[in-house]
Amino acid sequence: MGILNVTPDSFSDGGRHRNPVAAAFAMMEEGADLIDVGGESTRPGAETISVETEMGRVLPVVAALTRQGVPVSIDTRNAATMQAALDQGARIVNDVSALMHDPCAAAVVAKAGCPVVLMHMRGDPGSMTRLGHYDDVAVEVADELAARVERACANGIERTQIAVDPGIGFAKAPAASVALLQRLDSLMMLGLPMLVGVSRKGFVGALSGQRIAAEREAGSIAAALWAMSKGASVLRVHDVAATVQAVRVWRGLAGIG
C-alpha cells in the first residue's frame, strides 16, 4: 500500500507531492498494489480540519486515479469523505479511528459492502499521546481491536471485509511500539488480515538514531520485514520500490511463492 498524503503537514512527507497523481502512478510502477489517499494529518498534535477541506484535497486525486484503473483506499475518519470517495471509485476505507470518530461511518461502510481497515488508536491526534499507558500493550491492543471488530459487525459490516491495523505510533511511545511489534503475531488470534504501517515511524528513529523521518528508509524496511514475519498481510509504506525489492528477496529466501 503506497502512502499518498495530500496534506501540507504530515509527519514525514507533508507538502512533498506537487503532483499527487503523478506520484501515485510512480508508486504503482514501482510495484505498489494500491494507493492510500489521505487528506488529513493524524500525527500526534495535528489540528483537525474541516470535512470540506479534506474532501477538496482528496476527491480530485481519487477521481483521477480511479479513472485510470488505480486501486485506491481512502484514508479518512469522516463518513462524508468515505462516501464521496467511494462514489468516485475508491475500493477500501482505511480509518485510523476504527469507525469510532464519526457515528455515521459504520453505516457508510456497511451499505457499500467494501473492505475496511480498523486501526487501533486511543483518543484522537490531539489526545492520544497522553493515553498511551499500557500494562501489556500486545494484550490490550488485541482486546481493544477485538471490540472494534465486534462493533463493526454489529453495525452490519461483514467480518470477511475487515482487516486490522495495530496502529504503530498511535497512542504508543516508541518503547510501546517496539514491544507491540515484538509480539505482533498475538494479533493473529483475531483471525483477520493485518495491515501494518511502520514506515518512517518514531520507533525507527529511536532504534536507529536517525532523527530525520524522511531518511529512515532502511530502518523502515527492516521493520516491515519483521512485521511480515509476524503475520502482516499488507505493508503501508512511503518507499515503495525499495520495500518491494526487499519483500521479494525475503519471500524468495523464505520459499514463499
What's the domain count? Answer: 1
Question: Assembly type of the shown chains?
Answer: single chain
Instruction: Count the E strands.
Output: 8
Strand content: 5-15%
CATH-assigned homologous superfamily: Dihydropteroate synthase-like
How would a crystallographer describe the biggest sheet?
6 strands, parallel
What is the highest CATH level, the class? Alpha Beta
The coarse silhouette is globular
Overall structural class, as computed from helix and strand content, comes to alpha/beta
Give an overview in words:
- The chain has 257 residues and is of the alpha/beta class.
- The chain has nine helices and eight strands.
- The chain has a single domain, classed as Dihydropteroate synthase-like (TIM Barrel, Alpha-Beta Barrel), CATH 3.20.20.
- 41% of the residues lie in helices and 11% in strands.
- The strands form two sheets. A six-stranded parallel β-sheet has the order 1-2-3-4-5-6.
What keyword list fits this structure?
single chain; 257 residues; alpha/beta; TIM Barrel; two-stranded parallel ribbon; 9 helices; 41% helix; 11% strand; globular
Summarize the structure.
With 257 residues, the protein is α/β, with parallel strands linked by helices. The protein has helices at 20-29, 51-67, 79-87, 105-112, 137-154, 174-182, 202-208, 217-229, 240-254, and strands spanning 2-5, 35-38, 72-75, 92-95, 116-119, 162-165, 195-196, 234-235. It has one domain: Alpha-Beta Barrel (TIM Barrel).
